[in-house]
Amino acid sequence: MPETLDICMAQMNSTDAHAGNIETVRGYVAEASEQGAALICLPEAANMMQRDRVKAARIIQPEGSDPFLAACRELAHKHGIWIHTGSLALREDGAERFTNRTFVIDQAGNIVARYDKIHLFDVDLPDGIRRRESERYAPGGAAVMVDTPWGPWGLSICYDIRFPALYRGYAKAGATILFAPSAFALVTGEGHWETLLRARAIENGCFVVAAAQSGDHDDGRQTWGHSMIVDPWGAVIADAGRQPGLTYATLDLAMVERTRGMIPSLVNERDYERRHRKTAGG
Predict the structure, then answer these.
(1) pLDDT tens, residue by residue, 160-213
(2) Which of 79, 84, 118, 203 sits most deeply, having the most CB atoms within 10 A of its CB?
(3) Average pLDDT, integer, range 94-123
(4) Residues with a known catalytic role
(5) Residue 14 binned pLDDT confidence (cut-offs 50, 70, 90)
(6) How is residue 213 annotated by DSSP?
(7) Is the pLDDT of residue 224 over 60?
(8) Domain-embedded: residue 16
(9) CATH number for the domain that contains residue 26
(10) How many domains does the structure of the chain reveal?
(11) Is residue 126 in some structural domain?
């Protein structure tokens, strides 16, 4: 296995249709390849950000006909670079809800892994605002690891980052890099983004790579940005700030084993019985 991985994160401000985003990624992939990156990572909703369900239904395509995915496969083959697509909004034939799906594409343009976002953000806020990601998207049902020349990778998307058991499972199965492409909102981004990413890296002794959306989007949303790479010790080794663009880093893959040797929590972890406290008189 190679000792290092030269990686590029693309921080995007995705539009509400495919065409502009495809052109952006064409430029990004070409530049990343010229700079010697072996892998470029895109954010969640890379192919489009469109929260109007009626408009989205007219645009979103099945996997086999999605133009953004086709472009990514062509670009990977053309430039000889691996592409982590972040996530794409797709339609399943006959399904009422969309899917939010990650693809890992190798340097020949082959799809080597697919992952559907498992955890969906459904909330009722005190001010009466009700948000239901599950009304638009169907949840995935399986964690996905992919074997690569740089070791096993664990896949996730955005809100998944708040569910540590997913990443613990990846780490215990041997994953060395965890991916969390995202489109965090401003409030949660400022309050939680870096803390969550560093926590997942520290507790699992893994690299965490999190390409993100950033800025004011066509559909009215605002996203936090700050695409990050965190090393297994919990240090932020790349932070893209708020502007769209490319950020580069070289990952020292041997650091995973060194860190796990110093903090062996994966092997020290034990099963235990859970007991519930009873109230007085209960």
Answers:
(1) 999 999 999 999 999 999 999 999 999 999 999 999 999 999 999 999 999 999
(2) 84
(3) 97
(4) 44, 117, 158
(5) very high
(6) B
(7) yes
(8) yes
(9) 3.60.110.10
(10) 1
(11) no
The alpha helices in 108-235, defined as continuous H runs, are 164-172, 186-188, 194-204
Domain span at 168: 4-119+132-265
Strand blocks (E) in 74-174: 82-84, 88-91, 98-105, 111-116, 122-124, 130-132, 145-148, 151-155
Confidence of residue 3 (pLDDT cuts 50, 70, 90): very high
Could you tell me which residues come within 8 angstroms of residue 205 by beta carbon, excluding any fewer than 6 positions away? 171, 232, 256, 259, 260, 263, 265, 266
Within-domain flag for 274 = no
Q: How far is CA 268 from the centre of its chain?
A: 28
Residues in the chain: 282
- pLDDT reading at 282 higher than 70: no
Which two three-digit tokens encode residue 220?
Answer: 């009215």
Angstrom distances, CA of residue 8 to CA of 206, 217, 227, 249: 18, 23, 11, 7
**The token pair that represents 75 in the structure block:** 């670009």
- CA angle at 188 for the pair 45 and 90, rounded to the nearest 5°: 15
Residue 182 maps to a domain? yes
pTM of the model: 0.96
